Every structure is written in C-alpha cells, then in structure tokens.
Amino acid sequence: MPPSSKLIILEGPSGSGKSSLSSALQESLLPQIWLSFSMDTLIYTLPPSVLHRCNTANDWSGVDGRALGSAALRCLRALVECGNNVIFDLCIPNHQYADAFQSDIQDLSPVQVGVRCDWLEIERRTLLRADRSIEEAERTFKHQHSFQSYDFIINTTTIGPDAAATECLASFRHLLDGPTCPGTARPPHTEQAMTGNPAG
Q1: How many CB atoms lie within 10 A of CB 20?
Q2: Number of structural domains, the chain?
Q3: Which structural domain, as residue segments, surrounds residue 82?
Q4: Cα 169 from Cα 32, distance rounded (Å)
C-alpha cells in the first residue's frame, strides 16, 4: 500500500448518518482529498426501475447482493492500493460478512468508526429522505452486526454531520496524520467498552 493511502470505515445501520458524516469528513480533511465510496455507489448503478423497487418496496428480487458485496470489496481495495484516501460506509448484514470484510481489509490498517443512532431518529430521517423504505431501515437497525472493535464510536441522534465530523477527528485524526504501515496493530476498542464515550 502506498504510504499516502488511508482508509476510514463508517459502519452503521441505514439512516444513522453515515453518508452525511462521510461528506462532512471530506470537507473537514481538506486540502487533503478523500474519496467517498460505499455499497450505495454500486447499488445506484442498477437500472432506475429496479433501484426504485429496491428502495421503496424493499424488493431486491433479481439483484445479486452477494456479487455486489464482493465487487464493493474489490473496488475498495483497488482504490486504496492505487494511492487514494477513501472513506467507505456500509451496513453489515451478518457476522460472516463482518469477519470476511475485516479479514480482507486488515492489511490496509483502516480507522474503524461505528455510527449509531436511536431508532426514532432513524425513522424520522428515513421518512424525510423518502428514497428508502421504513422496512429496509428497520431491518438494518434490528439486525445490525458490529465489528469486534472500533477506533471510535459516534452517536448522531442529537448532532449534525459537521459536529459529528469534528468529534470523530478529535478522536482519531492522529491515526491519519502519521505514516501507518500495513498490518500495524492498534489497541482494540470493543463497542461495549466504547459506550462510555460521550459521543457513543
């Protein structure tokens, strides 16, 4: 991995504010350029009628989610290995995917951020954005699976993306500034241990 490459992972359920946080982090990290990439980047390449059906009716019939997930991982690795700084956000559907994902990116030494939000606020945001079904948001909230450890956990229930980005960078900016060798281990923080964090 080129020394200039960095990777921030934002993990959380649909509606928790990952995309908005990603955009805010991009602006906060200027003049250094960070790309925003996610599973949605690929999902939004689906035919418009299929995308509409997926988002509004939660009907994913005919869509190979496994193939899209595998493609996202390969694209992510290619982006980082080509020297790009990347912020990647995702929902984790099951423990198997969480384990496979972490195994695949471990050598890229990512900064892992858990993005959390109360259900009532997720429901409110989902109704406002109107591009995703409540059923989809509820499914990812009730069945969300976490990584084993995080560098930081942020709760966006009562704060906007700019404030969330400020809190995130106050916690892990030092991990982005210095050179990080692939595979370098950092002290793990479990989600249970991080719940005492005022932002978590």
Answers
A1: 18
A2: 1
A3: 7-194
A4: 14
